[in-house]
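User: What would this chain look like folded?
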Amino acid sequence: MYKLTLVLWWCAILVQGSYQPNWDSLDTRPLPPWFGEAKIGIFLHWGVFSVPSFQSEWFWADWRGNTSDLINQYMESNYPPGFTYQEFAKDFTAEFFNATQWAEIFARAGARYVVLTSKHHEGFTMWPSEYSFNWNSKDIGPHRDVVGELGVEIKNFGLKFGVYHSLYEWFNPMYLADKRNHFATQDFVVNKIIPEMKELVLNYKPSVIWSDGDWEANDTYWKSTEFLAWLYNESPVKDEVVVNDRWGIGIPCHHGDFINCQDRYNPGQLQKKKWENAMTVDKHSWGFRRNAILSDYLTPLELLTVLARTISCGGNLLINVGPSKEGIINPIFEERLLQLGDWLEINGEGIYGTQHWTAQNDSVNSNVWYTQKDNFVYAISLEWPQDGNMVLGSVTDIFKNADTAVSLLGNSGKLKWTLSSNKVEIQLPDRVTVKSETAWVLKIKT
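Assistant: Here's the prediction, encoded as structure tokens.
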């Protein structure tokens, strides 16, 4: 199936030719097959904001206004007079950051791609950008090329490497001047953003560009279509790169290679366009919080519930963790990721490379979500039935064939089943013999 998809994609690329800097043309670009196959990515929100690492909503609220003013108010209320946000940078030390260790964790978690915040709204670049003098990870703080180090190791572990990039910057005087001029001028975009994004692509060759910070201006101000035409036609990653939908007012949920519409987007039903659910293991924050308590983190079952619902409805899951200012991935984050990886070792067949089925959620059992691949339907159950009999409604047509075979991933042997007019009952194995501890996947031959 993957080889056929790849062939069709190449044929579409050859037929399409070059792309014009308008959405009608850009939207005809076929989605590179790897992204639809990957299903699971890791998101890393890491930067100067990791220094205060305190949840007070000012960092992570979805503001659409004078954000820099709100930050200044927070600084005045919580820090000595004259202390500025920029002073946090010297304490962003990253002394324990080990790119190899991180990449190994993400690979063991079962991720297929990783997206790092190369630059958040504060404007601090995590690489030695020519366009961010003395406000980058080489000149101050870690004194390291974070993007470069992590990108190499992520690729060494066979994963795709991507970058998050914020278009706007809270404190940049060029941006603030353009904004005061109602974006009639484009000095910030022409002299900073476009060159910066091209530098990022040319130097690090990311497979994902995850844009953000677009909401204050139209895509024409950001020169979004011009950049994407260059990316798709001329860049060194033109054949495999994918981009999201945050490229200007009115663009999210409509354009881009895939959509994520809003943070934690999880519609619970199929979408016309490929989509991604960017969410957090910490229920309240994207960045590291030193004041978080255990109940603030998703449990293994809660994480698998989000995964099942997302994948069944045709989405990818982008799981965010926020490292500390020292470069440590909190043990609770590592544990959740490795628990996910252990589950995928057993049940990944029902996740990777699958497609949505005719039903997403079972008609009689709301705890069951479906995927399909080749000649099999996979039923992901988030609850073990008390009597050991799994009752399903949406698959009854399949079981009208008396030879239909069903098994439980991780266990050998066929399972017994009985069919009535509107449901099928499947007798599960003795639970003590089952490998999965949380969430179980039935494999049904169609």
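Confidence is low (pLDDT under 50) at residues 56-65. If you want, I can go into more detail on any region.
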